């Protein structure tokens, strides 16, 4: 009997000892709250002396577990609190140890890969029950510092099954996580949009991401998927005009966007004068658009940063994919160079519409081609080398009138080194240029211009613990500007050789960016960037009377060139002018719970490069010019605040943001300015300021057969350019006037519907206010000629812009996983044939002699079909 009673006691004690409970403790919790949670779920009672103040807050971090053994919980408490917890029968005794026993921490690191051993950039990693989150970097790597213990790691990524893995951490541990494709929502060819719920706890705001799968679902003109045009479906982003790949962010100009391809700058984003962008959708993995709250590592532009990442090749097998469209085709090949250690990706694209023109005996011609490449080498466990490259050109001929060749070249060599699990570096050097050539056959001359840049970056990522991360680094870029070279062609040319002054500049910078988790509810990101800009010779700089390159003539009510009184020659390498700026950044998120938060951000940025153009579309012949004696750098201050929420288990998400930004030293041209071929641009411009403000709303449906989003923005973008002295009108009489990029209303509705595994459908509707323009408000006659009189700058608008695009995707064999796989895309751009105005031309009718307005439209109803494949 005695043995039976003893056995029963032991079994009862074991059951009590090993039972599981739920626990939720934050740094604001007291010992009393801990005791109550345990006593309410078990038969245990706590025993302690009066010397222990149970109302105090002893917890250094949050402790949340849906299920944990009492034994395991007490072990964690013993390691983290200045107390010793022990079980005696049905009692848990608590004794003060005097000093807290510091628990040893270890590094849990890993690599997230898909079934082709490709890194899943941005995959979400969560330590279950502890509210600890991070994301995978460009190589799919992540790193966390955690105390000794047992944990459940949860990995999630778009289109892949959620993976949970138990990890026992007693030393530094590295794990490879191979993710499995979610065949319930994803097939081998057509990828449906999955969970894109907003991360309410990260302080990053004013940032939108699009995967290449989402981009390929959006119907586009000519049936060609276009990453840049896909940006136009996001809030705060508008187009620079029909058939233009340029984009404007929160009322900013196209030259105020920093476009990066694998970390290197791209200076022109369009093919065929804006019909296509330079980014081949098959070569791109993802893109991130920062509209505000921009991290300190980015600088040099005052409107946005577009960070584009290229695909990487597989380490195990060769893969080929491509497509054939009505006017262009593309082919991508990727695979291993040395299995398991190195890989390559090469993508090519070319148009062939010019061939059809020749068949029709049309002397006009327009074509483009580009090549993307990326090479990856894993040199050792802690060292890797990557090379990214891009080369693209356009060839454009209009009969015997003129021809043009223009394009980008980029190369970037990147070395990544890991010193330890908590410290990694990224060293890169790059070259990027943009060249534009124009030949006027009828006048027998050619025009060449270019911008070249050579850069160096050295970034450090320093992970201190799960609440504090440092990112810091240095960078420098050297610029070589050729604003124009005029070359006569033959003796019959009426032009003489002319070389506009070449310009040289250096832009060094350093930054510090800090991510800090204050509590489970509050997260911060703050930092500082220090940028410098130096303009160098050789160049001769004019000296103007009263230091005014442009003066006002009150008699004729016009601005004229200032009086040149002399000049100063700066030899090669001699400093002409210099600038420096501190650029603070800060962002905060406060989470009400796991599904709702408010965020706020502030950032200051400086921009030292400018495009001055009197065209409202970013045409390829626009000339970049650096800051200098007469053109100051643009300085931005931007504030934003927003509310973010997920609904119904993240099926729906809501993002709302209000923003206000102001820019100093925004230049604008005077009326009647002559910009092309001008060696003294300072004689055509005035310095002013700009501002924009608005409200953005983004509502998404993230899961199910029907997915998509609705984006709406109401905003205002204005400029103000006053005169240089009392009595001068400046521009628009010195009042605020609409910038060319103002769009009061901007609505986009994007939807995708999966009917079955073979058929899916998508549609996109866009509606926005017409862009501001300047119309003539009357005319007068001079020697029998009607001369228009124009209203104030941008006082009018083009008609409202809207169109509806639809597409259907057909996959003949959706369950085929190997060999040749294919799908068809049938699309219609501008379904109801809206004749959107690209411009309005005011002319006199030759027959009637009456003045009339003529609308120029570029796109109407455009059907297209493309065949896409992979094997």
Describe the structure.
- The protein is mainly β.
- Helices cover 6% and strands 56% of the residues.
- The strands form 14 sheets. The protein has a 22-stranded antiparallel beta barrel. The protein has a five-stranded mixed sheet with strand order 13-20-21-16-17.
- A hairpin with a 4-residue loop joins strand 7 and strand 8.
- The protein is globular.
- Residues 1-17 and 184-195 have low confidence and may be disordered.
- It comes from Flavobacterium rhizophilum.
- It is a multi-pass membrane protein.
- Keywords: Cell outer membrane, Membrane, Receptor, Signal, TonB box, Transmembrane, Transmembrane beta strand, Transport.
- This is TonB-dependent receptor.
Question: What tags apply to this protein structure?
Answer:
57 strands, signal, Beta-barrel_TonB_sf, transport, five-stranded mixed sheet, 871 residues, mainly beta, 22-stranded antiparallel β-barrel, globular, disordered N terminus, TonB-dependent receptor
Mean pLDDT: 85
The overall strand count is 57
Which structural class is indicated by helix and strand composition? Answer: mainly beta
The radius of gyration is 31 Å
SS element count, helices: 6
- How would a textbook summarize the main sheet? 22 strands, antiparallel, barrel
Which range best describes the helical content: under 10%, 10-25%, 25-40%, 40-55%, 55-70% or over 70%? under 10%
* Unreliable sequence segments: 1-17, 184-195
Shape: globular
Q: Give the termini separation.
A: 74 Å
Strand content: over 45%
